[in-house]
Specification:
19% strand; Tautomerase/MIF_sf; Tautomerase enzyme; isomerase activity
């Protein structure tokens, strides 16, 4: 069953987060199939400082070999 982990900077509204999750699931269903009950989504928000010191080095660059879509920036 597909599980998506979304990390993003804090500050998005609840409506924006709900829409993001809905669009991710909608796109996955279009490509992979399966119903809503087959998908789970985790969403974690970070401050800019946390992104720079934790997310970028430890969650992104430390796993660069499995990135399907590479970043267009460096820190």
């Amino acid at each position: 069953m597909p599980h998506f982990q979304i990390n993003l900077l804090e500050g998005k509204s609840e409506e924006q987060k709900k829409e993001l999750v809905a669009e991710v699931i909608k796109a996955a269903q279009k490509v992979v199939g399966m119903g809503d009950d087959s998908y789970s989504v985790a969403l974690e928000e970070y401050s800019t400082e946390e992104w720079k010191n934790e997310v970028y080095p430890n969650k992104i660059m430390a796993n660069e070999e499995i990135l399907v879509k590479k970043l267009g920036y460096t820190m």
